[in-house]
Every structure is written in structure tokens, then in C-alpha cells.
Amino acid sequence: SELLGPLSTNHGVEIWPETLRHSERCCGSLGKHAIKFTLGNVYQLDVNQTSRYDRIYLGACANSRSKYLYRLLEVGGILIGPFQVGYSQQLRRVVRRSETQFNVEVLGQVQFAS
Fold first, then answer.
1. Rounded Cα–Cα distance for residues 30 and 86 (Å)
2. For 78-108, how does the pLDDT look when each residue is reduced to its tens digit (9 = 90+)?
3. Do residues 64 and 87 make contact, with C-beta atoms less than 8 angstroms apart?
């Protein structure tokens, strides 16, 4: 929200109610009232009925079937996040080039949990 400014749309999807409440409190104490948090599961999103975004950051490792999240990007949008690949995890940068084309760059191997 710092980079995008107060008129931008900032959404957070969180699966755990305690984490959602903590996020709302922290952002509120910083005056970040434009960030909207939703209790939900990113794996249950209907990408055909959801907003499309210029930037997406995944804070947790997406499973190997999560490429559908790419469709949440606007053309020119960028997604950064860890993705499960077999027994390892890759940090990826995905850029949507057109309605059907995505450039995927593997930034490196990561591990968030053992």
C-alpha cells in the first residue's frame, strides 16, 4: 500500500481468523485503512468471478496445481511467490503478457518449512 498509495485497491486473503484480525489491527494502527482483508482460502477462489490485479504477492507456498492463480493477473501484471515443484519450492516471478501468455521466471529455490 505504501508504493501504490491510498487510492489503490489492496486486498489480503487469509485462511486463519487470528491472522486476519492481527493484520487488520496492525494495518489500522499504521493508518492503512484502505487494505481490505477477507477470510477465505485462495484455493477456493473462482478466478472467473474475482478481480484481476496488477500485482500479487503470495506469502505462502502454492501447491503444484496453483497455476490457475496466474489468471488473477491483469495483462502486464506481476505475481511473485513460492510454488511447490515436486519435493522442492521455487520462488517465481510471473508476468502476464496477454490473455493467454505468461512469462515465468524462476528466481531461485526456497524453503519455508521443513
1. 39
2. 999 999 888 888 999 999 999 999 999 999 9
3. no
